[in-house]
Amino acid sequence: MTNSTETVTSTIFDASVLEQQLQREDALLRGHFRLSSGLHSDTYVQCARYLRRPELAAAATAALAAQIQAAGLRPDVVVGPAMGGVVIGYELARQLGVPGIFTERDADGQMTLRRGFTIEPGEKVIIAEDVVTTGKSTLEVAKVLRSMGAEVLAVASLIDRTGGKGGLDFPHFALLPVVAATFAPESCPLCAAGVPVVKPGSRPEKAF
Ligand SMILES: [Zn+2]
Predict the structure, then answer these.
(1) Exposed end of the chain (fewer CB within 10 Å): N or C?
(2) Boundaries of each Phosphoribosyltransferase domain copy (predicted)?
(3) What is the CA radius of gyration of the chain?
(4) How far is Cα 176 from Cα 178, in angstroms, rounded to an integer?
(5) Is 16 annotated as a binding-site member?
(6) At 29, is the secondary structure helix, strand, or coil?
(7) Pairwise CA distance, residues 53 & 49, whole Å
(8) What spacing in Å lies between the alpha carbon of 194 and ligand 1's midpoint?
(9) 16, 23 in Cβ contact below 8 A?
(10) CA–centroid distance, residue 184 to ligand 1 (Å)
């Protein structure tokens, strides 16, 4: 039985293979980065760069689908929150043979179902994400779905960055745990060490 507060890491898919693939696609970078939040980090994750390769997306998602099936979970629908969950949500739905829909933010920033997507009371849902970082947005999606009467079975993600602190009250299937340190720029040890900071997707900048 899965402890709902723990991440279920795959024994089917070799995590080190996935890590190598992510690095080869520049989807997982180690170094010194300035994130869009303004924080600095030793790690940069951009799963879209991995998922742009359909054959990689299909293989990794197959491992998640296998975990879900091995756990005996039978969802009625997969929900992949936009943007990060759209591609993997589609692929997971395809492999599980169920519909795949997505949530998105409305003009007020509220996560919602649009485009005529609906959830019927009692429908069993699996949420699909590329990466779960804090768990906060996944819980937000779960809350919206539950408000419509959905039963949230689990979340499935390629990468788990929660460090087991996602605060999720349902199981989390993930293929690769990634530990990343983030720092305020003024207290960043990498800056203090004179390591040039990189804004991902651009050239290195001078160290602060
Ligand atoms: Zn720094």
Answers:
(1) N
(2) 52-166
(3) 18
(4) 6
(5) no
(6) strand
(7) 8
(8) 9
(9) no
(10) 8
